[in-house]
Amino acid sequence: GMAAVALRHSNHCGTMAYYTTRAVSHGLIGIATTNAGINMTPSGSSQKLVGNNPISIAVPSTRIWPLVLDMATSLVAGGKLDVARARGESIPIGWARDADGQPTTDPTLGRAGSLEPMGGPKGYGLAVMLDILAGVLSGGRFGAGLGAPGSAQFFLTLDVTRFMPLDAFLVRIDELIDQLHAATLIDGVERVYVAGEIEFGLEEARNRDGIPLDVPVVEALDRVEAELGIG
């Protein structure tokens, strides 16, 4: 009813949702995690020893999109700091700390320092457990010993039909989605979403309208194009 694979001596593997949604396409539940380069500190420390190790869980549904959770264990992904830096913007307090462990609004100092775990000790604890599944269990690198390349991944699939008929499961998933969509709204909120719904809507918009690029990104691509003599 389930299959698991642990992979070591790997590299950056992209978004984990790519793998979990492949399981969904076969009517399976997919779970995947990877350890990342150390960019977070243990709670109460200023020393980076933990990665913001992401996890994805994808679940089939009858909608045009499956339920897909794909998140880092930091409050925000490091890429958000890169975007802020490219735009010359500051970041909110609580996203990152500088190299001395002090909260910062400077994305450059935040990148040189550490990302804040989501939920404080809870995000730190979850990141460590995911590193155990990916790095320790696989016999690969983990914690402070992790380098690039050298990351490790863990993948798990669950066969729904070993628990109940797939059709019955999908009916129950639809019921859950409907309950969440019907939740009472607070002021200023137009609707409640479920995991992956916003992202699939954004994917449709990008496929239709194209991908917007910030000026610094375009300029960087132009420089690479000129250096390589292509285009």
Can you walk through the features of this model?
There is one protein chain. By secondary structure, the chain is an alpha+beta fold. It has helices at residues 17-24, 78-87, 107-112, 121-136, 166-181, 197-209, 215-228, and strands at 2-10, 28-34, 38-40, 50-51, 55-59, 67-71, 96-97, 114-115, 151-159. The chain is built from 7 helices and 9 strands. A 5-stranded antiparallel β-sheet has the order 1-9-2-5-6, sandwiched between helices. A two-stranded antiparallel sheet has the order 3-4. β5 and β6 (67-71) form a beta hairpin. The N and C termini lie far apart (50 Å).
Largest sheet entry: 5 strands, antiparallel
Strand content: 15-25%
CATH superfamily: Malate/L-lactate/L-sulpholactate dehydrogenase, NADPH binding domain
Helix content: 25-40%
Helix/strand structural class: alpha+beta
Count the E strands.
9
Overall form: globular
CATH architecture: 2-Layer Sandwich
CATH topology group: Ribosomal Protein S8, Chain: A, domain 1
Number of helical segments with 4 or more residues? 7
